[in-house]
Amino acid sequence: MFNVSLDFEYKSPIDKVWNALTNPDILAQWVMENNFKPIVGYKCRFWNKEIGLVVHSEVLTVNKPSQLSYTWIGGPIDTVVTWTLKQEGDITYVHLEQTGFPDQSTEYYGAYYGWSSMLEKLSSYLSGESI
């Protein structure tokens, strides 16, 4: 199995980063439209009408403000996304792990570059820039 693994640092408090990962209105600004709720067992969707993508998710872990995980199932992808946050001083370290890719396929690289782009949008949101 192959995993997408990304690390980012944000000069923002951990609670603000957590809110950006769990508030559906904020998620819509940097990931995609959704009906997400940070409740273990909650089933939700993320969608992008422009490209016809619907991702089905179920929340697996909510340990505010340090860990969040949910399934990420759409098209041929059946994976788990896990966010791990840690604050040191005024920096919040964010680790994203998307596990369960059977190979380094188009979907794997799409996830890698897609999350990289989205995490840059998150950076803009956290710094107060419009996205």
TrEMBL record:
<dbReference type="Pfam" id="PF08327">
    <property type="entry name" value="AHSA1"/>
</dbReference>
<feature type="domain" description="Activator of Hsp90 ATPase homologue 1/2-like C-terminal">
    <location>
        <begin position="12"/>
        <end position="126"/>
    </location>
</feature>
<protein>
    <submittedName>
        <fullName>ATPase</fullName>
    </submittedName>
</protein>
<dbReference type="InterPro" id="IPR013538">
    <property type="entry name" value="ASHA1/2-like_C"/>
</dbReference>
<dbReference type="InterPro" id="IPR023393">
    <property type="entry name" value="START-like_dom_sf"/>
</dbReference>
<comment type="similarity">
    <text>Belongs to the AHA1 family.</text>
</comment>
